[in-house]
Amino acid sequence: xxxxxxxxxxxxxxxxxxxxxxxxxxxxxxxxxxxxxxxxxxxxxxxxxxxxxxxxxxxxxxxxxxxxxxxxxxxxxxxxxxxxxxxxxxxxxxxxxxxxxxxxxxxxxxxxxxxxxxxxxxxxxxxxxxxxxxxxxxxxxxxxxxxxxxxxxxxxxxxxxxxxxxxxxxxxxxxxxxxxxxxxxxxxxxxxxxxxxxxxxxxxxxxxxxxxxxxxxxxxxxxxxxxxxxxxxxxxxxxxxxxxxxxxxxxxxxxxxxxxxxxxxxxxxxxxxxxxxxxxxxxxxxxxxxxxxxxxxxxxxxxxxxxxxxxxxxxxxxxxxxxxxxxxxxxxxxxxxxxxxxxxxxxxxxxxxxxxxxxxxxxxxxxxxxxxxxxxxxxxxxxxxxxxxxxxxxxxxxxxxxxxxxxxxxxxxxxxxxxxxxxxxxxxxxxxxxxxxxxxxxxxxxxxxxxxxxxxxxxxxxxxxxxxxxxxxxxxxxxxxxxxxxxxxxxxxxxxxxxxxxxxxxxxxxxxxxxxxxxxxxxxxxxxxxxxxxxxxxxxxxxxxxxxxxxxxxxxxxxxxxxxxxxxxxxxxxxxxxxxxxxxxxxxxxxxxxxxxxxxxxxxxxxxxxxxxxxxxxxxxxxxxxxxxxxxxxxxxxxxxxxxxxxxxxxxxxxxxxxxxxxxxxxxxxxxxxxxxxxxxxxxxxxxxxxxxxxxxxxxxxxxxxxxxxxxxxxxxxxxxxxxxxxxxxxxxxxxxxxxxxxxxxxxxxxxxxxxxxxxxxxxxxxxxxxxxxxxxxxxxxxxxxxxxxxxxxxxxxxxxxxxxxxxxxxxxxxxxxxxxxxxxxxxxxxxxxxxxxxxxxx
Length: 843
What we know:
This protein is an alpha+beta fold. 52% of the residues lie in helices and 6% in strands. It contains 35 helices and ten strands. Strands 4-5-6-10-7 form a five-stranded antiparallel sheet, with no helix packed on it. The chain has a three-stranded mixed sheet with strand order 3-8-9, with no helix packed on it. A two-stranded antiparallel sheet has the order 1-2. Helix 13 runs parallel beside helix 15. The chain is elongated. InterPro entries: Adaptor_Complx_Large_Subunit, AP2_complex_asu, ARM-like, ARM-type_fold, Clathrin/coatomer_adapt-like_N, Clathrin_a/b/g-adaptin_app_Ig, Clathrin_app_Ig-like_sf.
């Protein structure tokens, strides 16, 4: 950069800045600025042409005023004129003003681009650098379109000076980040990669930033950079601090370049060439060895530079995950930082060890530091470090140390920061389920979790313990006894009441033999919490009460009295009122056998992956819970828990009889549909819709004044559930004239209509018949839907309804066919694919 002459001091600018600083108030400053703006405007519009020095001075003043926070709406053209000057200081101020004040959509961009082109072709290195800096600072798409093909040529040209190459590399990196579709390396790729061999370390440092960014998007095109990066890294690592004097920072040779080289290598797998890989391993070992050497300086800059290279080297070792010796050495090296006086180093060590814990080669080495990590969890002052310690405990946990880690995390929960409590609860729940060796320990852990941090226990956690208890006969009695004891605490969290109501309602009979937990004692204990709970929990308790009537007939009178009181049957909440009325009526009119059938025990839940892992991953963000964690949970957690997650709505306390799913498609959309008129499900919707096929759901009927069901949903002739997709072409061979046999389940389909108004009535390989019905007082209406399961159109399809006995005079028969069938291969519409018939009759 040329030296600034003594006459370029711009005394007028210095005086103006001094005046602004001496202003006693904001009003005085604004007044001085307005006076100066008026003076500059008059100079620019005056008849006398300004020389370069005056333009530069006034443009500098405008720039200073803008930096003070004031809007500038003139002077742009004078700044553009400065670009054509041959003086460095004038051109520099012009480019500076444009970089700061000119909008990328400005009308002056074309003029600016012409000036930049002139400077790039001038071969003056100073002017070229100014132009490249301006392009990088503005970074507009227009500039990328104008110069994206020109800058790579400047970068790789043999006669380009080193300072210009550095600017060109960084300018191209900026354009690639803003407009990657316009920066196409193509023929320049190999020559850009070979800049890693440049003799000038500044060029290499700038080029590697560009190559790293390009490699992340197009790794195959730049894979040749691996061997060059290893070679350059080897030369830096093996050199002494005196070999690279211009690039040695506090006795550490080229620390920034070393970090960038290590980061570039993390974009690729381990080198396939044995010689390159051996050289890289040697470099990594040298870095680890140098980290153990006594420091050459007590300055913090020296240790920061050494540690920066060390942590990048460890990140590369973890990325490769193929050298057991290096992984163990890295773990031991990080272990030394766990008790370092620098908080940042402790944080980085814990964070890196979290990743090391997932490697099969270093997992055991990480476990040796468990006591230090537990101590960090308890004593660290910085909450972020404590959170990393909790993450590391979670990552290093296995069957050998699960009880110790879970106990420590539970102990820490009592005093943990509120910001990390929910995450800690999820981790404790996952570890307790994943590594439990006996179910009593798992139940105790979750109940302690609710007791300690009940406000942070999400629904997924207590749903999960319910599922596991229901699916395991050997833990049900213990769970009932433990939760009964937990409910006796004076201050009991509402989540504990939910778990207690659910488990005692299902398995309270297992502990009823003890006088201390007799049926009436259980009921009184639950009911003592009733008035302190929210509406969903009260709804759950009402469901538990009706379960008690089935389990303990001697409590029937007491429970009916509770259900009959005005606070229940006249409750302002519709859900509670409906449950109280229905349960009271059910307990009054139903026989013992019917009651036992309706209120039978929950069947085992289907095996599904726990939703707690998904919730933790969502909370921590993408990539936090690894795929390995999920697979381990499915493999190991599946051995413990036969049951899976039904989800918040389907985990309700319901005695549903799940039917075997049909192997054929549900063309009418009836099987999976919820009962018509179903009310929205809620957390308190328990013991409901016991005949639903899709699992527990919300109550499907509401009691009105006449005691009849609410109106059912009116089926429409063009509803989506009747739109089906064909599985073949229209030219497919017609089906055989012999009627196809019904599916094995077809004979059982009729039984469900004892308690249901809609579903699949008949099904075979050719046809599916669905039914929907509704009733009001003495009137009823029934809809029959015929689904074509073949890939061809039915010809001459007719329906016949017989009228048994005296019903002939009471039935009105209506037939309609208005649905379309779309062939998924040819996208042509087929008519008469689905029929509906609607007999209307009176009782």
